[in-house]
Amino acid sequence: MSPRKSAADTRLTRRRILDLGLVLASAEGLEGLTIGRLAAELGMSKAGVIGHFGTKESLQLAVVDAAAEMFVREVPERARGVPRGLPYLRAAGEAWISYLERELLPGGCFFTAAAAEFDGREGPVRDAIVRMSSFWQRELRVNLWRAVSLGELPADTDIDQLLYEFVGIMLALNHFLQLHGDRQAPARARRALERLF
């Protein structure tokens, strides 16, 4: 086997592990992610799975990164090219609703579930989850400020309050979709965002 083919096979195997890990962790939590289960479901040895990551924590961190890639692709990237400020916020809000509505992961929003699982803990996995959340909130906050500076929102807008409510709408959407199976939740989230802005 050529080194090029071997490297491509290694990348493909790692991707398969991460894709399955993301699906399992979204529904069962990052702590429920085990090397043995991944190996069994992929028809691999435990050593074959661990060889790609080294430790369970490294696997969890790689799954968090894979979840971040998916979120960025499905939400901020879909709003790319839209003018900054209120148009961007509306486009990002619609992309976020669509992301949850399309049920790309069986457990809904990976970061909502992971935040609840790790919010009372310390360590690298929690830190990675916090970094992703902070990155996204910073992006939203910049656009809220931009909307105020352009006069799209009132000059006295409480940016932190608006950000809190924006994120809160999405958390509620995930809750009603996942826990209650409420198919009307996306329409409610859209109405809530329209009122917010």
What would your notes on this structure say?
This protein is mainly alpha-helical and 197 residues long. The chain has helices at 3-28, 35-42, 46-53, 56-74, 76-79, 86-101, 110-118, 124-149, 159-178, 185-196. Helix content is 75%, strand content 0%. Helix 6 (86-101) packs antiparallel against helix 10 and helix 7 packs across helix 8. The chain is elongated and about 60 Å long. It starts with a helix and ends with a helix.
Low-confidence stretches: none
Give the topology string: H per helix, E per strand: HHHHHHHHHH
| H/I helix tally | 10
Q: How many strands?
A: 0
- Global geometry: elongated
On the 0-100 scale, what is the average pLDDT? 95
List keywords for this structure.
197 residues, mainly alpha, 10 helices, elongated
Task: Describe the protein's topology.
Blueprint: H1 3-28, H2 35-42, H3 46-53, H4 56-74, H5 76-79, H6 86-101, H7 110-118, H8 124-149, H9 159-178, H10 185-196
Helix pairs in contact: 1-4, 1-7, 2-3, 4-8, 6-9, 6-10, 7-8, 8-9, 9-10
